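Let us practice reading a record.
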Amino acid sequence: MIVPETNFKIKSGPDWDDLETSEIFVEKRVLIVSLPGAFTPVCSSKQLPAYDKFYEEILSKGIDEIYILSVNDYYVMRAWFTELGIKNVKFIPDGDGSFTRDMDMLVNKPEQGFGMRSWRYAMIVDNRKVEKMFIEPGKNHLSNDNDPYVESTPEKILDYLNS
């Protein structure tokens, strides 16, 4: 599978810019960690801090960069990273969910009132080609899950990279 061609809206000074997928994926091996939402409990207390902690170790295994992706806008993602003091990983705001939809990972989360969000997963992408996906079990559109976080942990990623 090849990652979809899209662009992400980011701020650069007073202007909006497009971060093209080619800037992220072409001639690079990257780890994308996609999660349901900024400021949500599992994402904020476990997942994002863990990836920031394991950043150097993951990069030492042949990964060029780690990105956290969420169906949130640039301002929300920036505020979230700032509040948590994230220093290493970068964020990708998929504000309209187009990348997530094209990855077939866009799900409805009506129970929480979230609307359309990303299912929790991680993937290693080598020059736009998905090398490996780590998808949490129970993907559904009814919030009929316990927000699993077992397959997309940094430890699972490192197990794969070390094998």
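A brief commentary: The helical segments are 21-25, 41-53, 55-59, 74-84, 98-102, 154-162.
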